[in-house]
Specification:
Layout (H helix, E strand, L loop, with lengths): L5 H11 L6 E7 L5 H14 L5 E7 L4 H6 L7 E6 L4 E7 L7 H11 L8 H8 L5 E7 L6 H14 L3 E7 L4 H6 L7 E4 L3 E4 L4 H9 L2
Parallel strand pairs: 1-2, 4-6, 5-6
Antiparallel strand pairs: 1-3, 3-4, 5-7, 7-8
Helix pairs in contact: 4-6
Length: about 210
């Protein structure tokens, strides 16, 4: 049974037709699928079918341990966006990017394909100057209208600088992780385990935190 109706399918095809280069999604699951793994795989299969510039590969969390560790995956379900040359973009989705979050998923695919808006010169220079490893986790809920932009901002940082890794974490799929970081409202942004921001913030706000690390 299709996840998207004819109207939504048409809209998704139109958006994905803007992709410039090919993009692959590495989907990490397990042999006996968890409930969230099954739904995420079905979502991914349907989205990938809508563009000839999209493909995905499946990795088993246990059997493909080395490959998924190289991608930085520590829980499932996970999707890592890989560029057309097989390079890890640093953009991850933990859990199903449904609801409002489909917007960040589509934007990440487009940007990984090379379809992205130019950043202001000063912002681009600040991103290029990041020389330390940075891990950004953006906790979201699928009914949150502000979360997808927070994810897209973090993902753009990861795409522009290989020192940065950025994760969308769907809170209800990973309650133990959300509890660890005391997530009571979303979006909640955790940077390098030590700094947190509540709400959707512009890229300059994230850069200010990173520069102070």
């Amino acid at each position: 049974m299709a996840l998207f109706d004819e109207k939504v399918t048409g809209q998704l095809k139109e958006i994905l037709s803007q992709m410039k280069e090919t993009v692959e999604v590495a989907f990490v699951t397990q042999e006996i699928e968890c409930p969230a793994c099954k739904g995420t795989r079905e979502f991914l299969e349907e989205v990938v079918s809508l563009s000839d510039k999209l493909s995905f590969k499946t990795l088993d969390f246990v059997k493909d341990q080395k490959a998924r560790e190289e991608l930085g995956v520590d829980k499932i379900p996970a999707m890592v966006i890989v560029d057309g040359k097989g390079g890890n973009t640093g953009m991850k989705f933990y859990g199903l990017p449904g609801g409002y979050e489909i917007n960040s998923f589509l934007q990440s695919l487009l940007e990984a394909s090379g379809q992205k808006e130019a950043l202001p010169g000063e912002v681009a220079d600040r991103i290029a100057a990041i020389k330390k490893d940075v891990h950004i986790q953006v906790f979201v809920s699928l009914g949150c209208p502000y979360c997808s932009q927070a994810v897209s901002t973090a993902h753009r940082l990861a795409l522009e600088n290989s020192h940065v890794k950025a994760d969308m974490v769907e809170s209800s799929t990973f309650p133990h992780v959300a509890n660890k970081y005391d997530v009571s409202s979303v979006p909640k942004i955790i940077i390098n385990e030590t700094h947190e921001l509540i709400g959707n913030h512009p890229i300059n706000a994230l850069l200010a935190v990173i520069e102070g690390l």
